[in-house]
Design brief:
Strands 3-4-9-5-8-7 form a 6-stranded mixed β-barrel. The chain has a two-stranded antiparallel ribbon with strand order 1-2. The longest helix is centred in the middle third of the chain and has 7 residues. The chain is 9% helix and 39% strand. β1 and β2 form a beta hairpin. The protein contains 2 helices and 9 strands, in the order βββββαβββαβ. The chain has 148 residues and is mainly beta. The chain has a single domain, classed as Cathepsin D, subunit A, domain 1. The protein is globular and about 45 Å long.
Length: 148
């Protein structure tokens, strides 16, 4: 969860351990921050995470990437990769397919979840994944509607 203290907006974020589907060593997992966004069609990971995990492309796809505030289409050919995500709290692991892009967004600055819990009673007793993270953990994965 990401909370901007001035506006009290709670974003759907979480953390997980990411690894290559062909990785056999547990130490090859990397902590990543994920944004969940049902308003986008596809799932994306950063080029840096692809390189860190040593992910090999399973395909290449031509995408028209439109971003907020721009009125032109940005046509790019990007790698498509598979990667595994594991929950910190249990042994549940899922494999997802993602498109590789240079950057998803600027790092989200960590805010204490106590602020969200104080202002949103329904969060009071929920275990939140962002409680003990580094302050500026970059967003490495953007999960879109194709993974829901």
């Amino acid at each position: 969860m990401y909370v901007e203290s001035k506006t009290a907006i709670v974003l759907q974020t979480c953390v997980a351990l990411a690894s290559s589907p062909v990785s056999v060593q547990p130490q090859e997992k990397h902590r990543v921050r994920i944004i969940l966004d049902s308003g986008i069609q596809k799932t994306y990971i950063t080029q840096q995470l692809k390189e860190t995990l040593g992910l090999k492309p399973i395909a290449r796809e031509r995408l028209c990437i439109n971003t907020f505030g721009w009125d032109y289409d940005n046509l790019k050919t990007v790698d498509v990769v598979n990667l595994c995500l594991k929950n910190d709290d249990n042994d549940v692991t899922v494999t997802i397919t993602a498109h590789v892009v240079p950057m998803i967004c600027s790092p989200l600055k960590y805010q204490a979840v106590q602020f969200a819990r104080k202002n949103h009673a329904h969060l009071k007793d929920i275990a939140l994944s962002e409680c003990l993270l580094e302050e500026n953990l970059a967003v490495d994965i953007l999960i879109g509607a194709d993974q829901y």
